[in-house]
TrEMBL record:
Lineage per the UniProt record: unclassified sequences, metagenomes, ecological metagenomes
Protein name per its UniProtKB record: Carboxypeptidase regulatory-like domain-containing protein
Species whose genome carries this gene: marine sediment metagenome
Length: 261
């Protein structure tokens, strides 16, 4: 039987026990429900989330706020309200989760990764965020790099340029954003979120391409014409060309090892 319209729910239970349920619908709209129980060998970890907001020059805890935690397997895994101290506690499997909540008519989606710690503070307010842009080959700072930060609706939040250390700082409200790196030959982008004070964010991107000239000569110093050459680069792929009548080849390539054959 071919089931064309199928939905799946994966439920977490205690001590690593999980229940996966398939809701099956075939092309004749006959329905069938099948469930399986299995154990993933993982143990729950205790997670404590604290929610804070900056108002009137002070930091306050956000109490009695509805919070939902979900994963890629469960649309709503766990729902609860923060206590009087702006905290909530739960037990979940190690991994990555989405934490949804609404404050002051704004919906937030904090991406929780248990590898970042089991006790995390989610800060709702504008804070100074420091960005560092590094070359993704040797992790050296990229200076003079122009960057644009936009929210998920496309509104521009900041337009900045890195200093000699590959850094820049900006006052950014808590939330989810996309940073764009302006390049002459392509546009790069990456998502990020800001939910903590004094946050440090590092991005690794390809270094700007530079014009590199390769000269081909014999041992006696005479030029080599019409020589087929293949350049194997780390970031720009294979480049096949020849020296033609100039005995030299000039390429715009990114920083990295170049193999020539």
């Amino acid at each position: 039987h071919l089931y064309e319209k199928t939905s799946v729910i994966l439920e977490y239970n205690q001590e690593g026990r999980q229940l996966i349920t398939f809701f099956l619908v075939d092309s004749y709209y006959n329905t069938k429900t099948v469930s399986y129980v299995f154990y993933n060998g993982l143990s729950y970890v205790p997670v404590i989330l604290e929610f804070q907001v900056f108002l009137f020059g002070e930091v306050f805890n956000i109490s009695n706020m509805d919070v939902s935690i979900s994963s890629e397997y469960n649309s709503t895994l766990w729902t609860e309200k923060t206590d009087i101290n702006g905290k909530l506690s739960t037990k979940i499997f190690p991994g990555k989760f989405d934490v949804y909540f609404e404050y002051s008519n704004i919906t937030y989606n904090f991406r929780l990764d248990t590898d970042d710690g089991l006790n995390q503070t989610i800060y709702l307010g504008t804070s100074l965020v420091t960005f560092t842009i590094l070359d993704n080959y040797v992790r050296s700072p990229i200076s003079g790099q122009y960057c644009v930060i936009r929210d998920l609706s496309g509104n521009r939040i900041a337009f900045l340029q890195t200093d000699s250390l590959g850094k820049f700082s900006a006052q950014i409200p808590a939330g989810d954003y996309i940073i764009y790196f302006r390049r002459s030959y392509e546009q790069l982008s990456a998502p990020f979120q800001t939910y903590s004070q004094g946050q440090q964010i590092i991005f690794e991107i390809p270094s700007p391409r530079k014009l590199v000239r390769f000269d081909f000569v014999y041992d006696n110093g005479s030029n080599i014409y019409n020589l087929p050459v293949t350049f194997q680069t780390v970031l720009d792929g294979d480049i096949i060309t020849n020296t033609r009548l100039h005995s030299s080849i000039s390429l715009w390539i990114s920083y990295g090892i170049v193999s020539i054959s």
